[in-house]
């Protein structure tokens, strides 16, 4: 109805001029996003011409991709993927119960105060936050000293510049991005919905599994995407907390463009990073859809089975009568 | 009876877990705040309590310059992102079709492209635009930073505004038309006030995202125009000093004050819930 009305007046309604509104932003994105990335894709087929050149496209080949996917480079890719996958999973494991607590258990009056508290670290500079962890984890920092006084670790223990520190740092830096979408999804879970589930005979765990989690699923998928993608490209956290052990793909790419001056190889790595990231996201999406379909099918079955089972049973009792 | 005991135990453990997570989120911020009062020469080595780090921070020309560069480029980036993003958001919110799908696709791509890739692609491109094509303004350090920061922020603003446009009641615009409002008046008096919360939240996000940006900044910056996060990153090598924590603490307090102000302004027009949603961008 409203659509028809708007189409009718499209000559003078907001629709008429709205396409023009997209022009400046479209040109901006074309000039400063699409073209530069296409240039990088073009560089990736070239080579490093000599000691002082950065790129040369006179001979086109896929050799740089071969280089990017061999030996040390591949190892760093695998390392980055591992840190990103584990980091994303830990974020989910923390964010689901936390969001559940925040959306269901905390009274509405306090809910948004707590949400604001969750957002405070997110609004502060992530480099500064990471430096805070560097101080905490340093050999003479508060955490290590406390652990040493408790006798839990020996004098040589230091968590800084280990893989564990990097893992902790990325979980910390991206946790708010996981909590937000899951909280927003769970917030739609009104008390009435949970009472309905209870009235229909579901226990607490049953309600959580069959009502809360399916409602939160889109939020979890959103959170996974929000966390995983920047995590794959992040290298600052790893640099600050991991030192030499925190080598991530992002740092290798940066190195090729800054110190190495090998733009061709750096470009091939960039393209590979985009492709691997997108592929992972598509994979996660596909797994999510399949899992969702299986869960839905399984949830539907018991009701259908009892309905189907009830009818023959009743006819069965009716026959002898 | 056992059910309620178990309920209570579950609730209690959930609450403890929640508070632990909040402590975890605040731990490094508290550390920075505390260590900004370290009177020693090195940030990580606590010597004693003192405010000399704050005095040093506000008398160090390098630190003040870096913060100034950050603030100026963030204001310009926010202008770009808010203007371009709001216009894009209205366009993709009102219309549908192939062109809109392409634009939405590109904006989504901006959001999912790793920042380092945007950084390494912008650096040679901006240089070649300014050197080979002779576009002199692109030599300006502030403008280069603002362009780099504006990409992600523009996409964020567009999606925020699109969400708001989609939720609007078309009857209002139609009523304006029926009452013979001109297209401009209908836009200014009907559409814009309704979009204001989304645009405001978007501008705020753009500003803080830009202030926070490290990776793109490290690549597109010019000599003499190093923004604050890149300055901090580069001082990692030379050793961290307490004045960095002092300036970080000041900026943290300033950001929180700005957010509180924004929340208060937004709250005048709606409930606490919608304010929070606008701030986190789910509306």
Automatic annotation (TrEMBL), chain B:
<feature type="transmembrane region" description="Helical">
    <location>
        <begin position="141"/>
        <end position="161"/>
    </location>
</feature>
<dbReference type="InterPro" id="IPR035906">
    <property type="entry name" value="MetI-like_sf"/>
</dbReference>
<feature type="domain" description="ABC transmembrane type-1">
    <location>
        <begin position="67"/>
        <end position="262"/>
    </location>
</feature>
<dbReference type="GO" id="GO:0055085">
    <property type="term" value="P:transmembrane transport"/>
</dbReference>
<feature type="transmembrane region" description="Helical">
    <location>
        <begin position="244"/>
        <end position="267"/>
    </location>
</feature>
<dbReference type="GO" id="GO:0005886">
    <property type="term" value="C:plasma membrane"/>
</dbReference>
<keyword id="KW-1133">Transmembrane helix</keyword>
<dbReference type="Pfam" id="PF00528">
    <property type="entry name" value="BPD_transp_1"/>
</dbReference>
<keyword id="KW-1003">Cell membrane</keyword>
<keyword id="KW-0472">Membrane</keyword>
<dbReference type="InterPro" id="IPR051789">
    <property type="entry name" value="Bact_Polyamine_Transport"/>
</dbReference>
<dbReference type="InterPro" id="IPR000515">
    <property type="entry name" value="MetI-like"/>
</dbReference>
<feature type="transmembrane region" description="Helical">
    <location>
        <begin position="99"/>
        <end position="121"/>
    </location>
</feature>
<comment type="similarity">
    <text>Belongs to the binding-protein-dependent transport system permease family. CysTW subfamily.</text>
</comment>
<keyword id="KW-0812">Transmembrane</keyword>
<feature type="transmembrane region" description="Helical">
    <location>
        <begin position="190"/>
        <end position="211"/>
    </location>
</feature>
<feature type="transmembrane region" description="Helical">
    <location>
        <begin position="12"/>
        <end position="37"/>
    </location>
</feature>
<protein>
    <submittedName>
        <fullName>Putrescine ABC transporter permease PotI</fullName>
    </submittedName>
</protein>
<keyword id="KW-0813">Transport</keyword>
<feature type="transmembrane region" description="Helical">
    <location>
        <begin position="74"/>
        <end position="92"/>
    </location>
</feature>
């Amino acid at each position: 109805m409203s659509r028809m009305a708007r189409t009718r007046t499209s000559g003078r309604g907001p629709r008429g001029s709205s396409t023009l509104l997209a022009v400046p932003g479209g040109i901006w994105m074309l000039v400063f996003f699409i073209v530069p990335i296409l240039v990088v894709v073009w560089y990736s087929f070239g080579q490093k011409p000599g000691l002082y050149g950065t790129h040369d496209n006179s001979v086109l080949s896929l050799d740089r991709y071969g280089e990017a996917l061999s030996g040390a480079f591949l190892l760093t890719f695998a390392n980055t993927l591992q840190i990103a996958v584990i980091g994303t999973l830990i974020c989910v494991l923390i964010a689901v119960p936390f969001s559940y607590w925040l959306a269901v258990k905390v009274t509405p009056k306090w809910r948004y105060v707590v949400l604001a508290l969750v957002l405070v670290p997110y609004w502060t500079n992530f480099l500064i936050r990471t430096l805070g962890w560097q101080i905490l984890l340093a050999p003479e920092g508060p955490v290590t000293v406390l652990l040493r006084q408790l006798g839990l670790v020996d004098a040589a223990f230091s968590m800084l510049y280990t893989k564990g520190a990097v893992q902790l740092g990325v979980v910390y830096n991206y946790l708010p991005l996981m909590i937000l979408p899951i909280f927003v999804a769970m917030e739609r879970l009104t008390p009435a919905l949970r009472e309905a589930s209870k009235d229909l005979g579901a226990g607490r765990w049953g309600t959580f599994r069959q009502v809360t989690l399916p409602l939160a699923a889109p939020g979890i998928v959103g959170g996974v995407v929000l966390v995983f993608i920047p995590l794959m490209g992040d290298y600052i956290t790893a640099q600050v907390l991991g030192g030499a052990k925190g080598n991530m793909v992002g740092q290798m790419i940066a190195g090729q463009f800054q110190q190495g001056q090998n733009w061709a190889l750096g470009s091939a790595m960039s393209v590979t990073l985009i492709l691997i990231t997108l592929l992972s996201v598509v994979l996660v999406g596909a797994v999510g859809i399949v899992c969702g379909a299986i869960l839905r099918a399984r949830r539907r079955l018991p009701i259908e089975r009892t309905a189907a089972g009830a009818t023959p049973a009743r006819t069965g009792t009716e026959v002898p009568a | 009876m056992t059910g309620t005991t178990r309920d209570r135990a579950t609730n209690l453990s959930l609450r403890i877990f929640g508070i632990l997570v909040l402590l975890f989120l605040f731990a490094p911020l508290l550390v920075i705040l505390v260590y900004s009062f370290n009177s020693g020469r090195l940030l990580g080595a606590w010597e004693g309590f003192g405010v000399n780090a704050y005095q040093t921070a506000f008398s160090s020309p390098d630190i003040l310059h870096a913060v100034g560069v950050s603030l100026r480029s963030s204001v310009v980036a926010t202008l770009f992102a808010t203007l371009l993003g709001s216009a894009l958001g209205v366009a993709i919110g009102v219309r549908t079709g192939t062109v809109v799908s392409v634009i939405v696709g590109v904006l989504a791509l901006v959001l999912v492209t790793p920042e380092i890739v945007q950084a390494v692609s912008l650096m040679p491109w901006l240089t070649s635009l300014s050197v080979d094509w002779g576009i002199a303004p692109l030599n300006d350090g502030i403008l280069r930073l603002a362009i780099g920061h504006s990409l992600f922020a523009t996409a964020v603003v567009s999606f925020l505004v699109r969400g708001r446009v989609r939720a609007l009641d078309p009857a209002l615009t139609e009523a304006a038309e029926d009452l013979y409002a001109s297209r401009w008046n209908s836009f200014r008096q009907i559409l814009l006030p309704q979009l204001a919360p989304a645009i405001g939240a978007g501008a705020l996000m753009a500003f803080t995202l830009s202030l926070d940006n490290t990776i793109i900044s490290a690549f597109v910056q010019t000599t003499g125009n190093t923004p604050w996060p890149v300055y901090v990153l580069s001082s990692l090598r030379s050793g961290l000093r307490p004045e960095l924590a002092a300036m970080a603490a000041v900026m943290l307090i300033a950001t929180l004050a700005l957010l509180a102000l924004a929340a208060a302004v937004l709250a005048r027009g709606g409930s606490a819930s919608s304010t929070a949603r606008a701030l986190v961008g789910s509306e």
